[in-house]
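User: Run a structure prediction on this.
Assistant: Running it now.
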Amino acid sequence: MALAAAGPARAVTPTATVSATIVKPVTLTWISDLDLGTLTLGPGTWSGARIAISQAGVLTCTNTNVTCTGATKVAQYNVIGTNKQVITINAPSVTLTNQSDSTKTLTLVVDSPGSLTLTNSGQPGSTFSLGGSITLNSTTAAGTYSGTFNVTVDYN
């Protein structure tokens, strides 16, 4: 009868790599407000006149029932963080309230870049613009409508 002896069992220790990415805190600063200018409603009964300003500041006012005049501008923000990191921008729709009658509102659908890659660390940061659109109809109450953006940013 032959007996086979096994050698001692050896544990193999696999190696693991450890890494950590350190980023600077994200800072968001307001630069300028959004302004759609003055919107003059035409006569008659109509609906669905969309007025928009793009992130690049291009105003779209092509509906024959609305005349757009005055200076327009996009909202701008500056974000500071760590170079080459992707920042997610969250800018939900804004409720605009008629300053003469708070029961009258419009919804500004925000035109946001969604994200951006920081091009430096710290100052001067990266600036981005927000545009948006509203829809008017012949029964939209006259007055100045205003609201506030609820913009948040974070690393992606």
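Residues 27-155 form one domain.
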